[in-house]
Amino acid sequence: MDDLTFDLPMIVNGREVLPADRSDNHVLKYETGVTIRIPVMLSADLAEIQAERAALSEQLSRLTTDELTLFLHAAGDQWMTRRAPGRKLADSYAHRITGFSAAMIEADYETIGHFLTQRFHTWDTIAAEFGNERIFDEWIPNQMCLVRAFPRGLVLQYLVGNLPLAGLYSLLRGIITRNINLLKLPSRDLVTVLGMVQTIIATDPDHPIARSLSVAYWPHESEIGDECLATADAVCIWGGGAAVEAVKRKVRANVPVSEFGPRWSASLVDLTACDPDEAALRLVEDVGFYDQEACFNTQRAFVKGDLDLFRSCLRRYFELFAERYPLGSNRDALAHRSATLLEARYLGHDVDGGDDWAIVSLVRDLPDPAFAHPLGRTLILSPVEDFAEALPHLNSQMQTVSVMPSELGHRLRDQIAVAGANRIVDLGWSRMPRQGFTHDGVFGMHPLVRLVMQERSRFEFGKYYPAPSNVAEWQKLYLQGQKWWVDAWWMQMEAQAGEAGAGEAGAEAEAGAEAGTR
Questions:
Q1: Which of 179, 197, 423, 435 stands the most exposed, by the fewest C-beta atoms within 10 Å?
Q2: For the chain, which residues make up each domain, given as ranges?
């Protein structure tokens, strides 16, 4: 590819700041020959965000879910028809920055577009996570209380670049919860979320959602990052273990953190109970998308049945997958993968592969690989006679276990959950979570809201107390049960009476003395 240099804006409260507007810009260079300039965020930019917080928060908190979904629908329509400059930016440059194929990124962009344009997705997401789709609009009865969700305020989001869809979903979580969002772009993907934010702003620049979005980039350990953390009301962190831990150490007390750190996933496949050809097709889907860099990508498959037949099917589908989605890993990742495969051969494992994929079949007497998984569409196959053999190899760092046939998941779900996995899905569907899913064992929007409650009046008795014949009788019974309250009340009454009596006696004495003088 030819070398390419272009400028990206920073966004502050929905307004663009161009590199030409600043004397200091970040310059990022990529292996693909792309060079990007983007403005350095200053303390003055953060002060501008702070200055508009109160007014924007008030407007966002009054935004109904109906109004919110109508606006997101309009933005999604611009995104899907590719009319907005932001979508054109993402389409043009995301594949050259991330290294993922254009077709793979396009699949993510279509997914998020459907989420936006089909308004029910937002309603269903709210209902799935909070139990009621109107919890942002109304006070919802909850036993003897009423509950309503309110935004935290300013949410600082550290985004990740190895999964374009993740940044888009994270942005939408911040919008759906009516927060002001400051989005820290990842160097791996500077254009996906920026392009979506530009599309949202272009839909209506004066809308409170558009004005509540700020987008910037800064390197690790930058002082502006610490300044932003010092003002955030909630923090959302995506990334590797070291990056997540570094940010968490700087978060203030009472500021909730929504974190999505590194995890791995596996598959369980019973070839004796399903079609090996279909199973191979589905497994390649779970392994191959995002070049195996996503947490839900299968790294290891535990397989019962004819492994030789299964491997021949896998080879065919890996090659077909690579024709449509060529492997886009960088040079360092490819070098690590090559070295790991050499190590696997040295250890006695059977290694098979092409330019864009690899299969490492473990020998029976070596159940655990003695090497770090290199990603890069590398599948480790472990033969099992019974899936109980697989359970000890699952752990608390897992995210997803995909299974085939589905019955396998129903039969083993308790054991899989106890082993540490957070999600069980049909083989081939790991990258497409269904409505109602939990993310790494939690609901992703909960840390971004305050669930405010109002207790019902004590004159509402509910199902837990005997209904009194009248309120006066209930007050009498209640006060009898609260002896300390009654005693305190009588002490107060007696003290007030004593003060009043002393006042009257003093007045009488003063009057008598005055009469005697006369």
A1: 435
A2: 4-261+443-452, 264-426
What is the tens place of the pLDDT at every residue in 281-309? Answer: 999 999 999 999 999 999 999 999 999 99
User: Does the structure show a pLDDT above 50 at 183?
Assistant: yes
**Are 301 and 379 a contacting pair, CB within 8 Å?**
yes
- CB-based contacts of 478: which residues, under 8 Å, 6+ apart? 458
Q: In this structure, are residues 100 and 328 in contact, taking their beta carbons and an 8 Å threshold?
A: yes
Structure tokens at 79: 């995104």
Residues in the chain: 518
Encode 476-502: b = buried (16+ Cβ within 10 Å), e = exposed: eeeeeeeeeeeeeeeeeeeeeeeeeee
Give the span between the Cα atoms of 167 and 172, in whole angstroms.
Answer: 9
Q: Could you tell me which of 326, 431, 281, 317 has the C-alpha nearest to residue 102?
A: 326
CATH topology for 264-426? Aldehyde Dehydrogenase; Chain A, domain 2 (3.40.309)
**High-pLDDT (> 70) share of the chain, %:** 90
- CB neighbours of residue 153 within 10 Å: 20
* Cα angle, residue 349 at apex, residues 346 and 353 outer, rounded to 5°: 100
State how far the Cα of 268 lies from the Cα of 518, in Å rounded to an integer.
Answer: 109
* Cα–Cα distance for residue pair 150/257, rounded to 1 Å: 16
Each residue's pLDDT tens digit, 59-105: 999 999 999 999 999 999 999 999 899 999 999 999 999 999 999 99
What local confidence, expressed as pLDDT, does residue 273 receive?
97
Tokens encoding 416: 């899989």
Task: Give the Cα separation of 318 and 287 in Å (integer).
Answer: 9
Secondary structure (H, E, C), 132-179: CCCCCCCCEEECCEEEEEEECCEEEEECCCCCHHHHHHHHHHHHHCCC
Intrachain domains 4-261+443-452 and 264-426 with the same fold: no
Quick check: pTM over 0.85? Answer: yes
- From the list 276, 509, 498, 304, the residue with the least C-alpha distance to 388 is 304
Q: How far is CA 437 from the centre of its chain?
A: 12
Q: What pLDDT digit, counting tens, does each position of 359-384 carry?
A: 999 977 666 788 889 999 999 999 99
3-class secondary-structure state, position 205: coil
As assigned by CATH, the class of the 4-261+443-452 domain is alpha beta
Report how far residue 346's alpha carbon sits from residue 143's, in angstroms, rounded to the nearest whole number. Answer: 63
Q: Which pLDDT does position 487 carry in this prediction?
A: 63
CA distance linking residue 71 with residue 65, whole number of Å = 10
Q: How far apart, in whole angstroms, are the C-alpha atoms of residue 79 and residue 87? A: 6
> What is the torsional sign of CA 103, 104, 108, 109?
negative
Tokens linked to 22: 């600043």
Give 230's Cβ-side CA count (13 Å radius).
8
CA–CA separation, 496 and 76 (whole Å): 68
